[in-house]
């Protein structure tokens, strides 16, 4: 087995809709050639809006349909994928050169060339392409092909984590180049070099994949992979228990119900997936620094880990997990309601008879939205509101669809999820840099702190690891004094699967998880247990 076949990246965030009856039973024979025992059905909560990397799908290397120049091993270190080796870096960190692997074909049988790589990156960087992650490649000045097998990137400035950005999936110019990247058929009928190809997508119901006959990494033992879209956690657990699913993403309370099931195995993946409350700066209550600081001190993070996550997570004192090597030491903060009260008193937020504080006639009150159907976020939101009330802040919790929430994100708080693996720049820039305020789900709080912006820019450009470490240390300490978000917990991702395959492992995962995350991140490597 090649090293490449051990490195499928973590999964894309998948978006909405339930289905309770549309998948074939696990292991059943199928019309597309998958015999009994060669088919796997996985239950996930949401589905993607698009399957095109040109619009952001799989940007962290998280796809079964595509490959990047590089990919990640199980331990998250980089290794070659479509490239033959890690890049050759010259010109003081401004030039990256890759040589492509020979003989790679797309799933339509056409060969991969350097021109496909150039097309992919140039299209993503084109301002007419609706890719909200474009800022992640802002350092790229030019990308060009040298013959059919060599790609050269030239950067505006040294960018320390650039190699990790080249896990971006590569698309075929001969297909995607003939379409509008925003509206073309490629978004739902992709062609890639990965181990699987999409054969059917029934929106809100399931995505069905079969093994790619042209896959350069070998023939998977799992011939058919179905991702069943089941938005309700309880229904997903019920279908897994009945045998209708081979595996599922589950919250901690439901995963725990399978502990005594000898035919099921639970997998736990640590993650950078942080649950936060966004505090929009334009809201007269959440935009007040005293309110933000008081909420940071009022929240009982450990209780959330113990009671909501059943211990499957860690308290979050900032955007980076406490066990991350970039985490700023001594920024852990205990719950301190007395200190929260003193901060509010000093800022003129005084208690009224009903226990809710007010300033200049305005009550300390705001609305907190969470997405409907997400029990873990609901529980976080309710616990947060309970903690806030003890400090005299009235948080009104409401559930809604994302279609309702999105237009309100600039003025109302949201129980959100963020987190990227690979380098601190990847998650922190999009969450905190002022240039991205209000850019979709980037910087949802409209956070604007010049010191944090400077630290982000230093961390992005500096080549010296110590200078980068100092910048991110400064950033995390600035967030304690001027929080734009209340960080609550870093959650572990739990997956329960029928115990009939071997070779299953987990990676440290980003916020996005579902399709290729958890044990099925390397489904093309699975072997029958017997």
Automatic annotation (TrEMBL):
SUPFAM superfamilies: Periplasmic binding protein-like II. Residues 1-24 form the signal peptide. The keyword Transport applies. Residues 78-435 form the Solute-binding protein family domain. It comes from the Bacteria. Pfam families: SBP_bac_5. GO terms for biological process: peptide transport. The keyword Methyltransferase does not apply. Keywords: Signal, Transport. It is found in: Cell membrane. GO terms for cellular component: ATP-binding cassette (ABC) transporter complex; periplasmic space. It is a lipid-anchor. Its main location: membrane. One of its GO terms (molecular function) is peptide transmembrane transporter activity. InterPro entries: Peptide/Ni-bd, SBP_5, SBP_5_CS, SBP_5_dom, TAT_signal. Belongs to the bacterial solute-binding protein 5 family. This is ABC transporter substrate-binding protein. It comes from Actinospica acidiphila.
């Amino acid at each position: 087995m090649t090293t490449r076949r051990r490195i499928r990246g973590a999964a894309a965030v998948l978006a909405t809709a339930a289905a309770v009856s549309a998948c074939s039973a696990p292991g059943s024979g199928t019309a597309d050639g998958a015999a009994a025992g060669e088919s796997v059905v996985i239950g996930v909560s949401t589905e993607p809006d698009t399957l095109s990397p040109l619009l952001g799908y799989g940007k962290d290397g998280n796809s079964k349909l595509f490959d990047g120049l590089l990919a990640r091993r199980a331990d998250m270190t980089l290794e070659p994928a479509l490239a033959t080796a890690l890049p050759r870096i010259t010109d003081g960190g401004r030039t990256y050169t890759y040589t492509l692997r020979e003989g790679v074909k797309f799933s339509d049988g056409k060969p991969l060339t350097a021109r496909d790589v150039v097309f992919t990156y140039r299209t993503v960087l084109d301002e007419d392409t609706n890719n909200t992650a474009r800022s992640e490649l802002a350092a790229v000045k030019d990308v060009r092909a040298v013959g059919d097998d060599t790609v050269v990137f030239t950067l505006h400035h040294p960018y320390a984590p650039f190699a990790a950005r080249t896990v971006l999936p590569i698309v075929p110019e001969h297909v995607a180049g003939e379409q509008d990247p925003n509206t073309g058929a490629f978004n739902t009928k992709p062609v890639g070099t990965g181990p699987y190809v999409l054969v059917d997508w029934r929106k809100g119901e399931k995505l069905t994949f079969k093994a790619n006959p042209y896959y350069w990494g070998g023939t998977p033992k799992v011939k058919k992979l179905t991702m069943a879209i089941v938005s309700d956690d309880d229904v997903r657990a019920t279908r897994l228990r009945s045998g209708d699913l081979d595996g599922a993403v589950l919250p901690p309370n439901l995963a725990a119900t399978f502990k005594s099931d000898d035919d099921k195995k639970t997998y736990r993946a640590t993650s950078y997936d942080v649950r936060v409350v966004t505090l929009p700066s334009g809201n007269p209550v959440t935009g007040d620094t005293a309110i933000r600081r008081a909420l940071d001190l009022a929240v009982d993070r450990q209780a959330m880990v113990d009671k909501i996550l059943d211990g499957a997570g860690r308290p979050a004192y900032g955007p980076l997990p406490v066990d991350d090597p970039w985490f700023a030491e001594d920024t852990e903060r205990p719950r301190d309601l007395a200190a929260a009260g003193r901060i509010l008193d000093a800022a003129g937020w005084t208690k009224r008879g009903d226990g809710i504080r007010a300033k200049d006639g305005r009550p300390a009150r705001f609305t907190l939205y969470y997405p409907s159907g997400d029990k873990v976020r609901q529980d976080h939101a309710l616990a947060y509101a309970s903690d806030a009330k003890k400090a005299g802040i009235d948080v009104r919790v409401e559930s809604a669809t994302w279609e309702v929430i999105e237009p309100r994100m600039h003025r109302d708080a949201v129980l959100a999820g963020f987190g990227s693996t690979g380098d601190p720049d990847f998650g922190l820039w999009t969450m905190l840099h002022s240039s991205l305020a209000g850019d979709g789900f980037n910087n949802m709080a409209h956070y604007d702190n010049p010191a944090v912006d400077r630290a982000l820019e230093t961390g992005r450009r500096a080549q010296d690891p110590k200078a980068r470490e100092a910048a991110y240390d400064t950033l995390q300490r600035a967030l304690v004094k001027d929080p734009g978000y209340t960080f609550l917990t870093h959650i572990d991702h739990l997956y329960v699967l029928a115990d009939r395959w071997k070779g299953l492992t987990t990676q440290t995962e980003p916020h996005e998880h579902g399709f290729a995350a958890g044990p099925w991140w390397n489904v093309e490597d699975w072997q029958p247990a017997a």
